[in-house]
Write a structure and sequence with these properties.
four-stranded parallel sheet; 2 domains; 48% helix; alpha/beta; single chain; Rossmann fold
């Protein structure tokens, strides 16, 4: 396929957190607000006068300083974020809004207060206590946490948090989400005009760049994709759904696709599913109430342990396999991640054994590093899908 016009530009934006568009927005007077987790609603950080910046630590080679404070037996993602902070990589931030999604995440976020790694006189950080359930009591508690620790703190630094501003933030979220969703839906086609790697890059830049600055490039890319001619024949041997924790390196998707499996759906912490769903304000709701309800209803994090949420997560993956005509699922967990470690085992049994969906589970470091073992696992999985297809007298990838 012909190269996308802005792909190199998008890839360059992902090389560091403080990218060119972030710097431009700050020069124009916007405040950069960092966050690490879907439990912090992205929409609340895109009120007029500020923008969200989902924290990554691209090109991480080691986390020696972070290891001193957190030990090597903590999640490599959170150690990489702390390491990058200690290196000065997040000095552009006005705030970090953290979520106690897990003990490792909370510990990393606490070090932003204890060690003062962000050299910005305006900087402050808060941590919300994320709910474990999704009932009305949990929603009420979630709203209280977000009001006190996010909305009120934003008001303290001069950000407009009125009803009109909240509605504007929802409109911003829905606009960029509509573009990303339309691009992502192209992967449902039998022979998509976009690869999983390209979509991964596009989704990531929508999370780490100011929306008002990246949106024109995304809209132009959508129009380009509508007329882009795909390969004459589907170039992959299988189609898979990728689920898991923090997968913020497009090279991981590229690795899977180099083994013959196109990633057609991205249900992981940095993915578009469900983060790019539309927020709807129901009758009688304020905009703030709609945002909170939307995020607690759609949140598929394995931190939620009530039965309906567990069923919701597995139904979501089963539906993605059907909707995207996938041949199987790859479920990833970050090393030392307790929540995804348990979720991976449970999902492998329910999806693979009970529902009969071919499932591959892997554990990885934050930085790819040596990929030999992962490549072997993915190649074996793809070959297994082909053998199953031959037995079923079908055609993989059709």
């Amino acid at each position: 396929m012909k190269d996308l016009k802005h792909m190199i530009f998008f890839e360059d934006l992902l090389q560091e957190a403080n990218n060119d568009l972030v710097q431009q927005a700050i020069k124009e007077g916007d405040k950069a607000l960092g966050y690490n987790c879907y439990n912090i609603p992205e929409a609340l950080l895109n009120l007029p006068g500020c923008f969200s910046s989902r924290l990554r630590a691209p090109n991480t080679t080691s986390s020696e300083m972070a290891n001193y404070y957190m030990t090597t037996r903590n999640c490599p993602y959170v150690r990489a974020i702390l390491e990058r902070a200690l290196e000065g990589g997040y000095n552009y931030l006005t705030a970090l809004f953290g979520a106690e999604a897990c003990s490792s995440m909370e510990r990393m976020e606490e070090h932003f207060d204890l060690l003062h790694p962000v050299k910005n006189d305006e900087f402050f950080s808060t941590i919300i206590d994320s709910p474990l359930k999704s009932d009305q009591a949990a929603l009420d508690y979630y709203m209280t946490e977000l009001q006190i620790k996010v909305v009120d703190r934003l008001a303290d630094i001069g950000i407009d948090t009125s009803e009109a501003a909240m509605k504007a933030a929802i409109e911003d979220h829905n606009k960029i989400s509509a573009v990303i969703t339309e691009i992502g839906d192209l992967r449902k086609l039998p022979n998509p005009p976009i690869t999983g790697y390209e979509f991964h890059v596009i989704q990531l830049v929508s999370e780490v760049c100011p929306h008002r600055l990246i949106l024109p490039y995304l809209e132009e890319t959508l129009e380009e994709l509508k007329s882009r001619k795909p390969e004459k024949e589907f170039p992959f041997r299988a189609r898979i759904v990728l689920a898991g924790a923090e997968i913020d390196d497009p090279k991981f998707t590229q690795l899977i696709e180099s083994c013959g499996a196109m990633v057609v759906a991205d249900r992981y912490c940095f993915g578009s599913i469900p983060s790019r769903e539309q927020i709807v304000i129901k009758d009688g709701e304020t905009a703030f109430e709609a945002i909170c309800r939307h995020y607690i209803e759609t949140n598929p994090c394995p931190r939620y342990m009530d039965g309906c949420k567990i069923d919701q997560r597995h139904e979501l993956l089963e539906n993605l396999v059907r909707d995207y005509s996938a041949d199987g699922i790859i479920i990833e967990n970050m090393k030392f991640c307790e929540f995804w470690g348990y979720e991976k085992v449970l999902s492998n049994y329910i999806l693979g054994t009970e529902k009969g969906i071919p499932t591959c589970t892997i554990e990885k470091e934050y930085s790819l590093g040596s990929v030999g073992q992962l490549r072997t696992r993915f190649q074996a999985f793809v070959e297994g899908l082909e053998i199953k297809d031959i037995k079923d007298n079908g055609k993989v990838g059709a």
